[in-house]
Design goal:
Blueprint: H1 2-8, H2 16-21, H3 24-51, H4 55-59, H5 61-94, H6 106-153, H7 163-167, E1 168-171, H8 182-188, H9 192-200, E2 211-214, H10 219-240, H11 261-270, H12 285-291, H13 300-316, H14 321-338, H15 340-355, E3 363-365, E4 371-377, E5 382-384
Antiparallel strand pairs: 1-2, 3-4, 4-5
Helix pairs in contact: 3-5, 5-6, 6-13
């Protein structure tokens, strides 16, 4: 039994107390580490609270999330690395050369612990940053789809100053449509109202006539700029009280009352791209909508990356992965069987959100024959009224 304990011990020390008692420099390093962590956590919480009150956090939510996550990791790694350097420097002066026994010295053991913390911090940070990047890519795809829908609709209802015709110009067809007489067609070409009629005209088969040519070099870029300006006006109207309710909303309050731009776009999609009236919803509505934005199966990526990091660290410390896998596998099997129904509901929830099989507000008919509106979709149950 004694041999087994020695096999899994960190060098010649079996407890943290023994490790710290072996060197004054380690005790000082631990104090610096604890104080540094307290300072970092305090500063990070204040920074995170502050940035969430800024307009930038709403107009560029992905960059804001990236900055908050990366900043915490940057300072944490900097602190741990600094303490590690301190330990390595003092080792040269406090420890005398010894005959190699294959065991780690006190400084080496503590340094290995610090390196472990660094690896875990890096793994956690990467696990959080990758979904942010993937989410940004997904939002870019949705943005392109919104642009195509905008072109199809000839502009959205809340566009400023006929934006569509500032970017595209309708061009009459070269061939006379079968459903129009030549006289009627040529007469409509002479007036602005007639051109508008022809642009919106549909044949008996529901097909449009004519086409569009762009008036600017980069229509998508100009459209994105206009959409961002539209959102900034929405944000300003929320915080200044320049809206129908006269309420001044405060950024960063809990529960959240102002939509970030990505949620604002999703809400517009859900309500047919109609204008969103600032401050027209009760307190907390924006946060509730943000929670209900369709989630993706990519949510499991952070867990997978961090678990892989933990496994790598455990293997680095010399723990038998086969024994670990057997123990955790048995636990996972037991938990999985106990939570079978819950997990089934959760994965069904992810698929419903990802594939948008139905959303809040849709009318559905259940197998029982009940017909109603989807009120709310949660990982556990879907409410139909």
């Amino acid at each position: 039994m004694a041999e087994e304990i020695t096999e899994f011990s960190a060098g010649q020390f079996e407890t943290v107390s023994q490790l710290l008692a072996s060197s004054v420099s380690l005790q000082m390093a631990l104090i610096v580490l604890v104080v540094g962590i307290i300072i970092i956590v305090t500063v990070y919480r204040k920074f995170s609270s502050w940035i969430q009150t800024q307009k930038f956090s709403y107009t560029h939510p992905h960059i804001s999330r990236f900055a908050r996550t990366a900043m915490l990791a940057f300072f944490a790694i900097g602190l741990v690395s600094s303490v590690n350097v301190y330990i390595q420097v003092f080792e040269l002066f406090e420890e005398q050369p010894e005959i190699s026994t294959g065991e780690l010295t006190s400084s080496q053991t503590f340094a290995k612990i610090l390196n472990t913390i660094n690896m875990l911090v890096i793994g956690y940070t990467v696990s959080q940053l990758i979904p942010v990047a993937l989410n940004k890519r997904d939002k870019a795809i949705f943005e392109r789809e919104d642009f195509e829908k905008w072109k199809e609709m000839g502009g959205f209802p809340d566009d400023e100053g006929d934006l569509f015709h500032k970017i595209f110009k309708w061009v009459p067809p070269k061939i006379l449509p079968k459903d129009l007489t030549k006289e009627e067609f040529e007469k409509n070409l002479q007036t602005k109202e007639g051109l508008s009629f022809l642009e919106k005209y549909r044949t008996s088969k529901g097909v449009t006539i004519g086409g569009y040519e762009k008036l600017v070099d980069a229509p998508f870029k100009d459209w994105k700029k206009a959409v961002r300006e539209k959102y900034e006006k929405y944000f300003d109207d929320c915080v200044t009280g320049n809206n129908q309710t006269g309420r001044k909303l405060v950024p960063g309050t809990k529960p959240r009352e102002i939509y970030p731009i990505d949620v604002w776009r999703e809400v517009k999609r859900q309500q047919g791209y109609d204008a969103i009236i600032p401050a027209s919803k009760p307190s907390g509505h924006a946060e509730l909508k943000e929670e209900r934005v369709p989630k993706s199966a990519k949510q499991v990526i952070p867990i997978g990356i961090f678990v892989a990091t933990v496994i790598g660290v455990v293997a680095w410390w010399g723990v038998d992965l086969f024994i670990l896998a057997t123990a955790t596998g048995g636990m996972a099997l037991g938990v999985g069987l106990a939570l079978k129904e819950t997990l089934e509901n959760y994965f069904a929830y992810i698929l419903i959100r990802k594939d948008k099989i139905f959303t809040e507000g849709d009318r559905v008919q259940l197998e029982s024959g009940y017909n109603g509106l989807v009120h709310r979709i949660t990982p556990r149950v879907t409410y139909v009224r």
